[in-house]
Amino acid sequence: MTRPTHVHALIVAAGKGVRAGGDIPKQYQPVAGVPLLRHAVAHLRAYSGIGAVSVVIDPACRDLYDAAVGDLGLPAPIAGGATRQESVRLGLEALAGDAPSLVMIHDAARAFVPVSLLAALLAAFDDADNDGACPALPVIDSLRRGSGHYAASVDRADLWRVQTPQAFRYPAILAAHRSAEPGATDDVAIALAAGLRVAITPGDERAFKVTEPRDFAKAAAMTSYSSRAASGFDVHRFGPGDHVWLCGLKIPHSHGLIGHSDADAGLHALTDALLGTIAAGDIGDHFPPSDPQWKGAASDRFLAHAATLVRARGGIIDHVDLTLICERPKIGPHREAMRARVAAILGIDVARVSIKATTTEELGFTGRREGIAAQAMASVRLPEAADPA
User: Fold this and answer.
1) Which residue, 127, 165, 159, is CA-closest to 144?
2) How many domains is the chain built from?
3) Positive or negative: CA dihedral 287, 289, 291, 296
């Protein structure tokens, strides 16, 4: 087996995409409410065979890049060049400090690549003689040559419609790009000019390229996300103090809440709900109460961490809902400030945050004013892609 273990995906997103229309480059235009580039990143990150994803951009579009994917924890974007070929070379050069064994070079405009295509691409490197691999679909339509009138038929045997990502052993494709003449239409052309051996792997119609305005409707129809919902629950008892922390706010009260961190039951319940949507355990797995570094810690760190994990999976946080259960303090006067604070921590619109309060009619430990309970729900969308068996 010679399959590379250090795989880096390089998304080329430095072009203008003028044929697609719109006021901004196509990679930043929304598809089903999500920037096209974000879809591309999410689908690559959904495959565990890829260790890292970097994006090559036009530096003039940095604000658009930050708005599209700046919250996903990607490596710093790489400044591209005047042509796609130059942008790819600059991207490859930028990886040299931590050189991967294999690089997948991808176009942001092909945002919906399925895991099966990526797995087949990587499997091509089980053959030690392969320097690269490229997904492609066989040409099935009849082909004719002519100008104004048909002049001749073209044999479609052994003709292919190439797609991306195109994968290569990193040292080989870097050397090929460094020595390449300008004018190549893709990286396979550069590889072949350098004498590299490139395998054909199965393509997929879902990996089509958004080029013209009508393609956005096709892309929207191909968005493939599954909805996940999960719950969280937390309790903290009252103790000495003159305030409580709830939903990231310091609220004056006759007692404090007892806990290893700041005992913010609302944020703790929300954290567990978000972790549940990606089956990532619970808050204690990530921030053990036995670890002294979390003593007195602000719980907004816990919730922000859960949101980061969701986004690292390509997830979109659709909605969070929290019910605080207590007799005192009164939640109503603080509700809108709580919603704003939770929205800021999660990086979502406040309209996606619901906070409610109730009592237990003086029944149970909350009714006896011994503590506060919190119950949360979270819903997210995740790319519907699973690693092949």
Assistant:
1) 159
2) 2
3) positive
